[in-house]
Amino acid sequence: MLTSLTIKNFALIEQLEMNFSDRLSIITGETGAGKSILLGALGLVLGKRADLTSLKDKEQKCVVEAHFQIDKYQLQDFFTANDLDYEDVTIIRREILPSGKSRAFINDSPVNLNELVELGDFLIDIHSQHQTRELTNKEYQTEILDAFAANQSLLTDYRQHLSKYKTLKSDLKKLISDKDALTKEYDYNSFLLNELLTANLKSGELEELESIQEKLSNVEFIGESIDKSLAILNEEQIGVIQNLKEVKIALQKISGLSPDYQTLHERIASILIETDDVASELVSESEKLVNDPEKLDLVNQKLQTLYALFKKHNVGTIEELLEIQNDLDGKVILADDLENTIVKLESEIAGQQKELDALAAEITKKRIASAPVLTDKIAEILSQLGMPNARFQFEISPSASCGHNGKDEIQLLFSANKGTDFGLLKKVASGGEMSRIMLAVKSIMANYTKLPTIIFDEIDTGVSGEIAHKMGDIMKAMSEELQVFAITHLPQIAAKGEQHYKVYKSVIGDTTVSELKLLTKEERITEIAEMLSGKEISDSALNHAKALLN
C-alpha cells in the first residue's frame, strides 16, 4: 500500500507531503484544481516518461518520492533478480533535473525506467474511464476467469511443461536441420571415410614403407656393397679383422710394460669386438637381402596411395590423415545416430504434449464450471449499479495450439438490455457501462487475487443518486481487502471514505499553486455540502452532508 507521498516542484505543486490510510481515501476538488497533477506525479514513480514541462521552477529539480508497505506482496524475487535491497517499506524516488535528465531510485539504488515500470505494476493500478479498454483484452478476460477459478497452481504447472515442450521442439528442429545438412554430405563423407579405411593407415608407416622401398629398389647395389665390405673385413691374409688381431697380439706383448700400452691394447681389443660385430651384422643383412619385385610393387602402390591421400586432404603425415579419418567417422556415425535421436525426441515431445493436453483440459474444465458463477456475480453487482438487465457470457472455444494460458480461446460477451443478442464487450458496451463493469470486476477480484493499491479516477462520471451510493459502498467494501483511492465529484461516494483530501488552488504572490489538504470532520461536512449545492451552502445541504457522513 501507498503510505506516504512527497512532491516537490512538480507542475503547480511547490511542496506537498501526505500520509495515507490503508482503507478508502477520497480526493475531491474543482475541475482544474490539480487532481490530474497528483496522478501525474504518481505516474512518475511508476516509470512514466518525464520532461522539463513537469518543473514548476525551471531552475530547481523536481522530486517525487513514494513510500510503499510491501511486506504482503511477496516481491523478494523481484528485488533479488534486479540486485536491489529489499525493504518492507520500500521507497521509490524520481528526480527530474533542470537539464532535463531524469533519475530513478528504489531504496536509494539507481534503477532504469523498465525496472520502475515492472515494480509499479505490482504496487498501483490507476483506473479511469479511459483505461477500461483493458477489460476488452482477451488475455485480461482470461486472467479474470482464471483468478476466479483458482487456476493459478494448474497454470504454473502447465507453463513449466509448456516451456520444456518448446525447448524440446526447438531441439528437434535443430536436429532435423543438422540431419538434412549431414544427409547432403553423407555419401561424400562415407566415400572419403571408406577410402581412408581401405588404405589401412598406421602411424609411422610412411617412414617404414619408404625404407623398404629404398632397399628393394637397390637390392643388387646393396648386395655388392655388403659383399665387398665382408671381403675386406674377412680376407684370410689381409682382411681388416685379421690385421686387427695381429695388432692386438703385438700390443698384448708390451701391455704389461706401461699403462699407456695397456690402454692401447684395450682400445684395439674393443675395436676388434665392434668390427667383428659389424661383420656379423653384414652377414645377417646379406642373408635377408632378397630381390622381390612383387613386394616392391606392393610397397610402391601403397606409397602412391598415401601420396594421393596427402594431396587430396592437403596434409603431409599419416597422423593427420588419421585425424581426418576419425572426424569423418564421427560425422558418418552422427548421421546414422541422428535418426535414432530424432525418434527418441519425438517420443519425448509426444509425452510432453500428452501432459500439456491433460493440464489444459483440467484448466478448461474449471473455467467452464466457474464462468457462469462469475458472470452471475458481475451481473448481480451491475444490477445494483443501475444495469438490471446486464448479462454476460464467457465464450470458451478450443484452440489447436498450446498457448501461454492453455488451449482455450476466451471472449467475454455482453448484453445490456433484454431481448438483445450477446456481442463483444468492446463493441456493445458504452463508456459509462464499461466503467461500472470494471468496478464490478475489480470488486470481485479483490476477494480472489492480491490486487495492488487501486485508484479510481472519476469512473463515476454520469452516475448519480442511489447508483452513486452503491458505487461508494462497493469501493468501501473493496477497501476491506486493499487500499483504495477514489477521485470523485459525487458527494455520495465522497462520504464513504475513511480519509478525505481536497485538492485546491491558491495564489501566493504572483504564483498559482495546487495544494492537497486532509479534511477534518467539520471540513468534510462543508466540502460535501458544497458538492451538493455549490458555493452557496444551504442548511439543507449541510444537513444532507451530515446524513451522508453518518
Automatic annotation (TrEMBL):
This is DNA repair protein RecN. NCBIfam families: recN. GO terms for cellular component: bacterial nucleoid. Keywords: ATP-binding, Coiled coil, DNA damage, DNA repair, Nucleotide-binding. Residues 335-362 form a coiled coil. Residues 1-505 form the RecF/RecN/SMC N-terminal domain. Belongs to the RecN family. The keyword Coiled coil applies. GO terms for molecular function: ATP binding.
